[in-house]
Write a structure and sequence with these properties.
The complex is a heterodimer of chains A (199) and B (372). Chain A contains 5 helices and 8 strands, in the order αββββααββαββα. The longest helix of chain A is centred in the N-terminal third of the chain and has 26 residues. Chain A is globular. The model of chain A has no long low-confidence stretch (mean pLDDT 78). Chain B has 372 residues and is α+β, with helices and mostly antiparallel strands. In chain B, the strands form 3 sheets. In chain B, strands 2-1-5-4-3 form a 5-stranded antiparallel sheet. In chain B, a hairpin with a 4-residue loop joins strand 1 and strand 2. The mean pLDDT of chain B is 86. The chains are: A alpha+beta (199), B alpha+beta (372). The interface between A and B is medium-sized, with 31 and 30 residues.
C-alpha cells in the first residue's frame, strides 16, 4: 500500500463503525424490547498475512458468522463473528428464551442471521452514507467456520487488508462479545482511506 | 391495476413476493400473496404497503430497514422470532403463519429502485425445530439421569471396596492369630493334637487364599489398563512368597513379558489351587520354555488333579458367554481369576500331564505370554 495507515485513519474508521453499530443497537433495542448496548469498538487494520498475530479475534473453528459481500467503489466482505456459546446466548437473549440447550438450531440461526444483518447493515450503511458510495450487496449468509475459512472463502477478492472491529454487546445483563470484520479487495483500502480523509 | 410484465417471472413462486417502489407503494403482488391475504393484484397495486398492512406503519424498524434496502441497496432478513409478521395473523387462510421475510433491492432498467419483499411460510420448519428441541431436551435429561446413576454406583462401589478392605484386613488379623496358635499346637507331642492343628493351619491358609482371591477379583475389575512389560521372575517369586512353606521350584529366566501388575495373581492362584487339591505337602514346579515371540509357562504339581467338570470349564473359560456364575462354581475363584487374567493377556490355560505326578496324579497348567 502506498500510504501508511495513521492513528487518525483508525479513529475515522472507529467513528464510522461506531455510528453504524449505534444505529444497529437502536434497532435491536426496539425489536427485542431489551436494553441492548454496544461498546465503542476497538479497531485494527492489518494486512492479511499478519492476521494470525491479532489477539482480539476469536480463534475457534466453529464461529458463527453472518456475512455480506459487496462490490462498487470498494469491494469486499463484511461479517459479524461470534464464538458459538456467545452466538447461542445472543439468540436466546434477544428472543427472551430462558435456559434450553446452548446449541444453534434452525430457529436460533434465523435470529442470529437477522441480528448479524442489522449490525452489518448498520456499519455498511454508515460507511456508504458518509463516503457517498453506492454498493451492491449479496444477501446475508450464515456460516459456522473459523476466521481463516472466512478469509479463504473470499480469495477471489485477492484481498490484502482486513479491518477488524471488536464490539461487546450487553443484553439482559449478559455480556456477549463479537467481532465485526471487513475483508477488503485489493486497492479497496486505499480508496476507503482516501474517502475517509476527505470527510 | 395488473402486475407489470417484468415481474411476471415471480408470479407463481411458492413464496409470497411483492415489489414496492421508493415511495413504499406496491407495484407487484404475486399469486401466493393473493392466496395468503385474500387480496388480489387489483386490490393492492398502486396502494402503499402500510395502507394494506397498517400494522407496518407503526413499526419504525421495519420501515427503516425497508428503506435501507431501497436507498442503500442492502438486503434485509427478518426472522420469525424477531421480525414483524408482514401478513397479519388473521389472514385469508384462517391459519396462523410463521413468516420469514427477506427484502432485496432491485433496480429496473429505467433506473427506478424497488424492494422485493419475499415472505416464506416456515410454520412446518418451526414445528420440526420445536419437536427436535423437545427430543434433545429429553435426551439430555436421560443422559443426566444416567450420569447421576453412574456417579451413585461409583460411590456405592467405593463404599463396598472400603468395607472389603476393612473386612479383609480384620479377617487376616484373626487368621494370623489362628495360624500362630495352630502352628504352636502342630509341634505338640500329642499326635491327635498335632493332627488337628495341621487341619486348622490348612483351613486358615485357605481362608487367606479366599481373601486374596476376592481382592484379586476386585483389582481385575478395576484395573483395565493396557499391557506393559513386566518381569516374569518377579511375578513368579511374588506368588511363591505367599506360600513359603510349600515346595515350589523355579529357575529364574530374567525374561520380561507383556502383561500387567496382576501377573503375580496368576501364579499365586495356580499355587493356591495346587494346595487346595494336593494339601500342604504338594510339590509345584514352574517351567519356562522359549517359543519364538512367546514364552510357554508350565505350572506342574503332584496333586490329585482336577475333576472332568473343572477341566471342561477351564477349557471353555475364554468363551464369552453369560455363564460366569457356572464357571466360578465349577473352577472355584482361584482358577476363575487365572482364566480372566490370561484372557486379558491374550491367552488361555491348557491342561496337560504333569512332570511331577505319578500315575494319574498331578496336573499341568500351560499358557503362553508374549515376550517383550
Amino acid at each position: 500500500m502506498s500510504t501508511a495507515i495513521t492513528g487518525d485513519d483508525i479513529d475515522a474508521f472507529r467513528e464510522l463503525i461506531n455510528i453504524g453499530i449505534g444505529r444497529s443497537a437502536g434497532m435491536l433495542n426496539k425489536i427485542t424490547r431489551s436494553h441492548v448496548t454496544l461498546s465503542v469498538p476497538e479497531v485494527e487494520i492489518v494486512p492479511i498475512d499478519k492476521f494470525d498475530e491479532i489477539n482480539c479475534v476469536e480463534t475457534g473453528e466453529n464461529l458463527a458468522t453472518v456475512s455480506l459481500d459487496y462490490s462498487g467503489s470498494f469491494s469486499g466482505r463484511t461479517a459479524v463473528v461470534f464464538p458459538p456459546d456467545s452466538a447461542a446466548k445472543l439468540a436466546m437473549a434477544v428472543t427472551g428464551e430462558d435456559g434450553g440447550s446452548p446449541d444453534l438450531d434452525g430457529m436460533k440461526v434465523e435470529v442470529l442471521k437477522e441480528v448479524g444483518n442489522i449490525l452489518v447493515s448498520g456499519v455498511m450503511g454508515s460507511i456508504s452514507n458518509v463516503l457517498k458510495s453506492s454498493l451492491s450487496y449479496s444477501i446475508p449468509v450464515y456460516n459456522e467456520s473459523g476466521f481463516k475459512d472466512l478469509i479463504r472463502d473470499c480469495e477471489t477478492f485477492a484481498e490484502e487488508y482486513v479491518i477488524i472491529g471488536r464490539a461487546d454487546f450487553t443484553i439482559r445483563d449478559l455480556e456477549i462479545s463479537g467481532n465485526i470484520v471487513m475483508i477488503l479487495e485489493m486497492g479497496s483500502l486505499e480508496h476507503l482511506l482516501e474517502s475517509v480523509r476527505k470527510v | 391495476m395488473k402486475n407489470p410484465y417484468h415481474f411476471c417471472v415471480l408470479e407463481n413462486l411458492p413464496v409470497g413476493v411483492c415489489a414496492v417502489d421508493d415511495n413504499l407503494v406496491v407495484r407487484f403482488w404475486n399469486r401466493r400473496l393473493e392466496i395468503w391475504t385474500g387480496l388480489t393484484q387489483e386490490d393492492v397495486i398502486g396502494r402503499p404497503l402500510t395502507g394494506i398492512f397498517p400494522h407496518l406503519a407503526s413499526d419504525d424498524v421495519f420501515i427503516e430497514r425497508l428503506k435501507d434496502s431501497i436507498f442503500h441497496r442492502i438486503p434485509q432478513v427478518f426472522s420469525s422470532r424477531l421480525g414483524v409478521s408482514v401478513i397479519p395473523d388473521e389472514n385469508a387462510t384462517g391459519k396462523s403463519m410463521e413468516q420469514r421475510t427477506s427484502i432485496v433491492p432491485y433496480r429496473k432498467d429505467d433506473g427506478n429502485d424497488y424492494a422485493l419483499v419475499t415472505i416464506e411460510d416456515i410454520s412446518e420448519l418451526k414445528k420440526e425445530v420445536e419437536a427436535y428441541r423437545k427430543m434433545k431436551d429429553r435426551a439430555i435429561m436421560a443422559l443426566n439421569e444416567q450420569l447421576k446413576a453412574e456417579k451413585d454406583l461409583f460411590k456405592v462401589n467405593e463404599e463396598a471396596n472400603l468395607y472389603l478392605d476393612v473386612m479383609s484386613h480384620d479377617l487376616n488379623n484373626y487368621n494370623n492369630v489362628i495360624l500362630g496358635y495352630a502352628s504352636l499346637l502342630e509341634s505338640s507331642d500329642d499326635e491327635t493334637t498335632s493332627k488337628y492343628a495341621k487341619g486348622i493351619v490348612l483351613a486358615a491358609e485357605r481362608s487367606f487364599q479366599i481373601i486374596q482371591s476376592v481382592s484379586a477379583v476386585r483389582k481385575l475389575k478395576s484395573n483395565e489398563s493396557g499391557l506393559i512389560p513386566v518381569s516374569l521372575d518377579n511375578a513368579v517369586m511374588e506368588g511363591i512368597r505367599n506360600y513359603s512353606n510349600i515346595d515350589i521350584s523355579y529357575a529364574e529366566t530374567g525374561a520380561k513379558v507383556m502383561a500387567d501388575n496382576l501377573l503375580q495373581e496368576v501364579f499365586g492362584n495356580l499355587f493356591g489351587n495346587s494346595i487346595r487339591t494336593g494339601g500342604n505337602d504338594v510339590k509345584i514346579k514352574v517351567i519356562v520354555e522359549e517359543a519364538e515371540e512367546y514364552l510357554t509357562v508350565h505350572v506342574d504339581d503332584n496333586s490329585s488333579g482336577l475333576s472332568d467338570e473343572e477341566k471342561n470349564s477351564i477349557l471353555h473359560c475364554s468363551e464369552d458367554n453369560d455363564s460366569t456364575g457356572y464357571k466360578l462354581k465349577t473352577t472355584g475363584l482361584p482358577l476363575y481369576i487365572v482364566c480372566k487374567l490370561l484372557e486379558r493377556y491374550g491367552t488361555s490355560p491348557v491342561i496337560g500331564g504333569s512332570t511331577l505326578g505319578e500315575g494319574k496324579r498331578g496336573v499341568r497348567f500351560s499358557f503362553s505370554l508374549k515376550k517383550f
